[in-house]
Here is the input.
Amino acid sequence: MAFKKRYTGKGLLKAREFQGEMLAPYLPSPDLMEAVNLAIHLNRPLLLKGEPGCGKSYLAKAVACELGLPLETLYVKSTTKAREALYSYNHIAHLRDAQLANTKQLDPEEIERREHSYHYVQFGPIGRAFQSDEQCVLLIDEIDKADIDFPNDLLQELELQSFNIAELEGRELQNDLPSSIKANNKPIVFITSNDEKPLPAPFLRRCVFHRIEFPNKTRLEEIIRAHLKLDPENESANEKEMVTKALTRFDKLRQQMTDDLGGAKKASTSELIDWFKVLTAHPADKMLQQLDGNLPFPGILLKSAAAHEKFLRERN
Amino acid sequence: MSINLARFSRAISTTRLRRVLNQTRIKRIKRIKPVQRHTNLPFFQLFLRLRNSGLMLELEDYYDLLEAMRGGFGVDIKREDQEAQLAAFRRMCKWLWIKNPAEDKIFEQQFKAWLASGESRELADKEARELKEAHQAKKDQEESLEQQKKQKQEADREAKKPSEPLEIPAPDLTYKEPENPYQPLRRSTLLSNQYYPLKHREMQQSWRHLHREERMGLSTELDVPATVHAFAQKGYLEKVRYLYHYQNQIDLSILVDVGGSMIAYDALCAELIRTAKEGGKVRNVSAWYFRNVPDDKIYQNPQRTEWIDFQDFVQQLDPMRSSVLIISDAGAARGSRSLKRLFQTETFLEEIRTKTLRTAWINPFPRRRWKGSSAQQVSEWVPMFYLNRMGLDLAIDVLKGKQIDQ
Here is the structure.
């Protein structure tokens, strides 16, 4: 058994730069870490679901950052086709070169060379992940946005970790380049879904599935402190009080949202972080006062007319 | 009996496992209580239970569980009590085998039943500790090996030797034979939809076939590969090819008979409508309700409190797009042949068929029950099918426009 990487969640306790991007701290729950390790161990994609803003997509970055692996991301759109995720063939450039060769403006040998290499092939995120010399973290973000055929079309490629470049098949390639790409190192695959559309059963079967739950109050506090770079030891009494108070207020609001608004969107972790950023940007004593009265900066937490009406009018 | 997980998962052949699975499957069809076979496989009874209660599990899924346990998952190494171990194991099973809330319910139910059945006692305190120790030992070994490996790598980096396979001691799992192998499953009946003639998933799959795609409007998107291909064939650019968008052109109206003899099929009909709305590719699905035969009114809800005139309903059908599916027993439940009912049925079918011929009838009663009742007569006027997977597929063919000789 080859060595398998292990995710401990300790790599991103503080903000860190990764692949030219500043990553915010990420504190996964023990359950989530175990699910990640299980997926890595079994070499299966980890399918993540959960409320919007609970950190589904961020997990892949956190894992890549901690394990020091390159990250490839496929942002799925409603028009995304499975093949684009693997590669695309630049027909136009090929045609242009053929025309140029016809009119002797391009060396025939040159077009020969281009035709027998990957010159016209542009690899998509999955193609790049398969070709990478070291193991990659591959994030397929919001897979439910595409057509229901999309996940099914990718099944084979993710399972076998290889695909063919149809346009190059039958051509003898230079330097023994293969026309079918096989993964050098099996990538660690994360797939996120917002449950907009049901996913096909054969696809689900091949995944490890984890639902990210909303963090409990203690962890929420840890997350907030990590994000705001607050140190519990040397912060003022006012700041401390504000964190506790704002969290209590948020907790109550979320509870009310669950009770009253049913299936409507609830305020999430990412919104809470934004709210705290605004709160801490203002003088603490002023904010403390405000927290007792009307919900300060409601636009960050409440995202529907019904919610605004309900939770703002109640205080008045 | 103590068994070594790593050893047996290599030793037990796939063919043997398949045989065991097949045997239990046959038993299930014959409606014989699944006999607990002495397979000596850890957690295999749990796997079978879940599989038999409708989860889509295959052998590979069972292998995954073993592989995961070999990797030290499903054990809480920080705690010693049995509850924590069980929770960790349960969590792992869920990650591997459960993909949606509906399956989650089945899992919880079956897991409880499995706990009660006694097989789970292999996770008792002592074994759990053994597992933990084995896991700890593995971890220590892994760490030391990792160091060794690093040193080795540094020593001969250029040699590029393939890393040696690791010998990881597998956790010992003790399997106890269940005390009473014939203990019935503890589960409340009628709560599961496993008794339906076709499953939720099958309905979804069938509905996906209901599509008739038509080219929509003008396209501005260039079909590059097709254009280049045509160019290459002719040697000059004759014309540019465009990508066309296709859209499903079917509007489906489902007319459901409610009340009386159809009460037993309420949930099934609701499920059928739900799957058509959710999973299908149909542009527009609408459900309408009636009792026995639609008269001058047709209802918009199953409680039959809101209605529109039947004529208005017929008016809004579009000859090019609309398909109509009727779900009713057509008198097959009572086996009666009422002339009045037949006459009314004929009238309403005639009216619908002036608008669209893509009309099918689904009868929840099997074909042999139609004989002698008004259903037999109706099935001569309109394609009528028994509600199972095949029947639904055939009905969908008719809704797509296929002509079927009854």
User: Anything to note?
Assistant: Chain A touches chain B through 29 residues (CB under 8 Å).
